[in-house]
Amino acid sequence: MAGEQKNHFTMGIVDDLTGHSLPEEAAPDTAPTDMIQCKFWGLGGDGTVGTNKNSIKIIGDHTDKHIQAYFQYDSKKTGGITISHLRFGDSPIKSSYYINKADFVACHNSAYLNKYDMISDVKPGGTFLLDCQWTDAELDAHLPASVKSYIANNNVKFYTINATQLAINLGNAKVKNTVLQSAFFTLAKILPAEEANGYMKYMATKSYLKKGQAIVDLNHAAIDAGKDALHEVAVPESWKDAGKTAPAAKLEGKRADLMSFVNDVVVPVGAMKGDSLAVSTFAKYADGTFPQGSAAYEKRGVAVTVPQWNPEHCIQCNNCAFVCPHACIRPFAMTEEEAAGAPEVTKFAAKPVLKTNYKFTMSVSPLDCMGCTLCVKACPVNKNEKLGTALEMKPIATQLDQQAAYDYAVNNVSEKSELVATTIKGSQFKQPLLEYSGSCAGCAETSYARLITQLFGERMYISNATGCSSIWGGSAPATPYTVNNATGRGPAWANSLFEDNAEHGLGMYVGQKAIRDKLIGYVKELREGCKSEEKAAVIDNYLNTLNDGKANEAATKALVAMLEACDCENPLKAKILAEKSYLSKKAVWIFGGDGWAYDIGFGGLDHVLASGEDVNVMVFDTEVYSNTGGQASKASNIGQVAQFAAAGKAIGKKNLAEIAMSYGYVYVAQIAMGADMNQTLKAIAEAEAYPGPSIIIGYAPCEMHSIKGGMANCQEEMKKAVEAGYWQMFRYNPALKAEGKNPFTLDSKEPTASYQDFINGEARYTRLAQQFPERAKELFAKAEATAKAKFERLKKLVEFYNV
Amino acid sequence: MAGEQKNHFTMGIVDDLTGHSLPEEAAPDTAPTDMIQCKFWGLGGDGTVGTNKNSIKIIGDHTDKHIQAYFQYDSKKTGGITISHLRFGDSPIKSSYYINKADFVACHNSAYLNKYDMISDVKPGGTFLLDCQWTDAELDAHLPASVKSYIANNNVKFYTINATQLAINLGNAKVKNTVLQSAFFTLAKILPAEEANGYMKYMATKSYLKKGQAIVDLNHAAIDAGKDALHEVAVPESWKDAGKTAPAAKLEGKRADLMSFVNDVVVPVGAMKGDSLAVSTFAKYADGTFPQGSAAYEKRGVAVTVPQWNPEHCIQCNNCAFVCPHACIRPFAMTEEEAAGAPEVTKFAAKPVLKTNYKFTMSVSPLDCMGCTLCVKACPVNKNEKLGTALEMKPIATQLDQQAAYDYAVNNVSEKSELVATTIKGSQFKQPLLEYSGSCAGCAETSYARLITQLFGERMYISNATGCSSIWGGSAPATPYTVNNATGRGPAWANSLFEDNAEHGLGMYVGQKAIRDKLIGYVKELREGCKSEEKAAVIDNYLNTLNDGKANEAATKALVAMLEACDCENPLKAKILAEKSYLSKKAVWIFGGDGWAYDIGFGGLDHVLASGEDVNVMVFDTEVYSNTGGQASKASNIGQVAQFAAAGKAIGKKNLAEIAMSYGYVYVAQIAMGADMNQTLKAIAEAEAYPGPSIIIGYAPCEMHSIKGGMANCQEEMKKAVEAGYWQMFRYNPALKAEGKNPFTLDSKEPTASYQDFINGEARYTRLAQQFPERAKELFAKAEATAKAKFERLKKLVEFYNV
User: If interface means Cβ-Cβ distance under 8 Å, which residues of chain A face chain B?
Assistant: First the structure.
């Protein structure tokens, strides 16, 4: 079987700049005539790839056929697309290109028919299988014109199946793919029907026996159900004249540079047509920069349920927005005028925003939501039955009308600066500058990152380590980091290598600092010759706030306005204005995961922290190298199982925080948003304010942890982790030491919950108990003792640092 | 001027294995006819290179000539050879090869005449200048036959000069090279004599004015003295028939593999003939391994004075041997028989070795000694005037007779195992397995390393980071790590890269462990079937001592002897004996400097310490990247000046020890041999005994520190550093924690001496005060405060770790 590889998108192979032309279609089809080619379009995580791997094993093991399988992915962490390319034949298979003359194409998600051109991959006379809930009459209404005419004019055998409903009927929507696998074997006829049925059941038993007989039986039932559930569509003669589907209209927006990028690159790549883009399309981006904010135009609509806001119960705390990983639930405060212009579907709270006359709305973007439910769970109203339900999950179809309300608010309602504050509530009145990223539903990393962009995004540089955060932060060509609507400014983001991220971020800092220091010199010179008291005050205000990010932002604005208005001939003025974007204090952040910070990039991280320079490091600590599919890192805890550490890690978690504290001049914090939102906010604000190196280690529960109940419980899991003494929160602020105070604050309380109960709620631990019960017992006891000792040590550190 | 580069030795360019042949002589001499080529042979550190750089600048700046200079070095840290290749001409110079058809050759050290073939580089009719104190009659007696016949038969103009005596007469032996520079200008006639004299004086003023007018005047006097001090030798007709110098006899020794390496490679490379070695010479060493112990055959004889042992005053404490960097002063305990066989010049103490009948001698190897005087300064007798002088420095010529005594003892006197102990005295009765390395005279690093080889050398693996320790540890082809005379075993040493040394060492450990674990499995299997009580006891003793290095060494010996003697047919026996060298517990050490441990290799070091594996790390902390000529490292202290940190480091020393302690399961110690020999010994022994990762950070004063009085004060400087609170000694032993004891021991006492006085004794600090007095004041105050705070912190750590 061919290797599996995650593909991001592939660049065009038509080089119209150099004149070399190699269109995709020219790829030689060396397929022997006996070869059967099959292609499956599925939703990432829906099981399509898993069952296809299963199918290929059955055919490889039980027939004389040669086989080949290749799985093509986009780079989205959840809700992306997967395309399986399977080939079978009597001769060895050496095809090294995507299948585009398929004997069989299956579409496992009917919504894809409008997004992707998959029908033209079916060769004339081939078979097309569509999973849908439509009757033949509904098919006629729902199928795009191009699909209908291709089927009819190419003699395509067209089948439908309602696998989703069949699976639900069997009692578990997840077995949909087993149903579809069975249907595939019926249609493909590679093995006699009975034989195929037997092998599928054998493989299902093998795969699921450890999950219990019930799951095995369920899958066997799905196999039986799938084989006979096919419906062959009698293709109407009229489809021959269905013509072509009209091309989608160009997307529109305010920023011309962004919109040309969206229409020229993002849309075709999103339609899996990236391979056919001409090289010249990328000429504008040859320096490697992409415009910010293109993710907003993906509007993927992959959630099954999305939150509905019930204004009558809302207390306007903004907790929901505070935890949202994808920034698709946002509070807005509208003036009367803004409210008047809002679409009718817009809902408003009865009470205005506290102490103002602004009308309050909590807007939800159904098409951007991933359906994680974190907002619903974070709602304090929901937690008290007596108060009613302020937010609840509803099927996406029932909420699509809210998209207009959301789009209006995002594009037309101004930020109310008097409401913005470094509080849970106040921070959410600031536009998030990380939105709709490619992260998993419920991802903790993005909740942290989104919050940071709300606090400093307009004056922020981000250097990103390779890892999940570089994938969701830049799922090329979608760019989720964006700009503020009013100022047009947002984080400058770059990803260098896994191993040099800290150094790369330090370079960003030092580079801008060199320019800024030069400009500060000019401003000082200007001040010396300044005779106007009024102007001198503006200059002084700038010079007196150099190290205060927020104050300097306003002071710089005033300075630039003053200089631009001034009609003097001082050559310093032009010099300063030529590089005015470097005048204000920047917030340089270095983002990365535990694999980077604890292991591969640690040498550089240590060097950068030691440098004493004013950079801020945010470690998204999932403890498990999430992006590479799970390995033990030095951040992993005792007893944790990972893909490449099946026997559980035997050694404790590295004490990265204390290592950083050993310098004495590094700000250090450990946080867990779901356990203490205020502590999280405080740490981030203190880190940025501290005029030296800072590092924040944020606990980030992750898909790879297999939390009981899934990522819907991500924020809750953080709370549990702290209560069980699994994770500790604290802050070490050297600025306090300079004031003669104790720099170390332990923010966690004595653990109140059971450590063992906590780790029993995560399969990354329970897996060890299943496979090596004795070892698990020993390691888990050791883990608990280590955690207890760590807390005792932290309490002693309070004493140790006491002055 | 061409770049300067440190050359190790160059491999042969005659490839007689492949048939490709490119002898050195074939290098095209593209020299334009107007080009003058000059070659100077000097002793590293004697100033030859410095004055030649000076000369080339004078000619480049004040004539129309094109110039080229290239400086060729061996890899010895002190007392190596330097060859300057200078070219001048009217056309651009593009010669890219060593000079071998010189117009002028100068030999600045008459001893070189017997070691190197330099005369054949003089082209017929060229000039040869020899610095010596010989009369013409003496010349005839001292010059090798080949030199005489070459001079006479090639019409070489031959001059002598007694520059050494002239310089001494002027009041400072160091200006010898200024005398020789002046002589060169007189002979070379590139500039008119008066002009050359003026420029030399101008350059001397420029170079030395900051050292005071007296030094300027001294150099001007040397310039005047040199120009007229030449003596042209009337070459006797008889020299034409002097014939060839007889080739040196092959060196002899017990180990055939070593001796062929010494004679085939070490000797020719030592004679600077490495370039002419054939590729086939190296075929035996194609896997990169060189035999251990070749440095013992260099017998460089570079010291001016060496210690003389006065047995009547000696108290047999062995302190002298304990500090010796080059292992060339060693105590021996001889039986009556051994003593009877010793050369007559052997001196013995009146008293036998305590509690034995062994006769005691302290042997000195004059030809291996570097003349550092550390032994004399370490002698407790010398410190008390009333006790007389047990050791004193004497001109080497007066001590050469002791070489025979030393060689006899080293080669013929057995180790007395009952005297060997982990004490200062006892450790020195063990043969050092690091001897005569290429390190600087007085080097602290080698004192530590030598001691470690005495404790564990026979079962030791060393992975060495790039840096000084890789140069003195493997000045190819000289190998200073050697084997024990009796067992034939010694450290297996390898140097990978600067950045991966810790990982490389971990690999060494894991590799041998995998083999050993397999063998242990065989031994256990053997034990199960063993019916002899006696044999079972031998096996049990092996199995019960697996983690105890010393005990397991003896147990393994017994096990192997038992197995070899056994006539059973058990196939396990053969399997075990086939890999018997892996049976015993090994001591894996990872050596490196501060540049490696604190900076470039730190990421890997951290990873290896975190691994929990049983490796031992020794950091030679010179605080200054010694090998690359001095940079600020994270080990550097506040206020320290280095070649690439001229304004003094502003940030404190990294707390590497505490970082390692943060793991809890890493043994950590900071030591300073000269401050506390016992603490050093204790830490090294504990580190090796601890069955997990260990790291020792050893303070290592260095040439680059420019200590007042030079490296003769190296060990004293460590004592001062501790007394002034500049350096702290402590040990953190996780094994104690497991016993319920406080793992942390602070071995330093409250500082009693002035911090400022201490740093004022090292030019790496005083340089800052000279150049930036204000900044120095500020940084030095900060440095002192930081050191005080560090000691307070350590005291608090004693409390913190108290149980």
Answer: 599-604, 606-607, 610-612, 634, 650-652, 654-655, 658-659, 662-665, 796-797, 799-800
